Amino acid sequence: MTPDARFAPPDAKLITADIERAFAEDLGSGDATADLLPADARASARLTCRDDAVIAGTPWFDACFRRLDPAVQIDWQATDGQRVAPGSVICQLQGNARALVSAERSALNFLQLLSGTATATARHVEAVAGTAVRVLDTRKTLPGLRLAQKYAVRCGGGHNHRIGLYDAILIKENHIIAAGGLAAAVAAARGSHPGLLLEVEVENLDELTQALVAGVDRIMLDNFTPALMREAVALTAGRVPLEVSGNVDLVTIGEFARTGVDFISVGALTKHVHAVDLSLRLQLD
């Protein structure tokens, strides 16, 4: 993936659909409070970030305001993927006052959520600095916002695992049981979807050996200790990329990365979201 592609947001149609859902639940039949303002009133607004954060979600923020005021002027002082210091003014807006106050909450919800995801990702990426490990996300995303959150992970320096159940195969314990064994599960997956990446989750070194013999594309070490990870790296000898999953946090991820594995997947990037603190202040022109 090129640097430019890394920060390419989802298709504009998807962003529009996200905005329409947000407005449907927030605006409903109309903003009764905004009716207090004259219909033709103009206003300026300043957006401040109160946290040390990595910004992500500007396309959603912009789309919220442009949905209500196509002529709104939005001037960014930060870009997606950029780290900002607490107290930084990151954006200024000018437009119809009613539109600015009506779009504010939805716009901030998108930006604070996605910036929170990007910031958490950046912290995990920093924790594995000096290793070759790639930090991956998972499917543990907020319903309806998966592509948005996976975009934010990329903004934070992470990488996307599979997007859904359709673009890669991950064989887990229940699949193995249902198929009658690891080798049978792998054979069935290869027969049904030969063009998809095929990964198998293993819980011990014996299952790791079976996965190597079966010829999979990637192996996930589920809840391995660091000592077992090092044994798995030695046993695999570079034949198949290894991914670590389970018990990963900012305390453990560095130690896991130094065992020599290739990937570490972190559900907390998109599941345990701590929203970035943002403040939008308006002033009538």
- Our Rg estimate from Cα atoms comes to 22 Å
Could you say which overall geometry the principal axes of the C-alpha atoms support? Answer: elongated
Put simply, the count of helices is 11
Largest sheet: 6 strands, parallel
Number of strands: 12
Could you tell me the strand content as a percent range? 15-25%
Q: What is the terminal-to-terminal distance?
A: 44 Å
Order of helices and strands: HHEEHEEEHEHEHHEHEHEHEHE
The largest beta-sheet arranges its strands as: 6-11-10-9-8-7
- Secondary-structure content class: alpha/beta
Unreliable sequence segments: none
> How helix-rich are the residues, as a percent range?
40-55%
Q: What descriptive keywords fit this protein?
A:
285 residues, alpha/beta, six-stranded parallel sheet, 11 helices, 20% strand
How would you sum up this structure in a few lines?
With 285 residues, the protein is of the alpha/beta class.
Layout of strands and helices, then pairs:
Blueprint: H1 3-6, H2 12-26, E1 42-49, E2 53-54, H3 58-68, E3 73-76, E4 83-84, E5 88-96, H4 97-127, E6 134-136, H5 146-155, E7 168-171, H6 173-179, H7 182-192, E8 197-202, H8 205-214, E9 218-222, H9 226-236, E10 242-245, H10 253-257, E11 263-265, H11 268-271, E12 278-284
Parallel strand pairs: 6-11, 7-8, 8-9, 9-10, 10-11
Antiparallel strand pairs: 1-5, 1-12, 2-4, 3-5
Helix pairs in contact: 2-3, 3-4, 4-5, 6-7, 7-8, 8-9
Walk me through the structure.
With 285 residues, this protein is an alpha/beta fold. It has 11 helices and 12 strands. The protein has a 6-stranded parallel beta sheet. Helix 9 links the parallel strand 9 and strand 10. Helix 3 runs antiparallel to helix 4 and helix 6 (173-179) crosses helix 7.
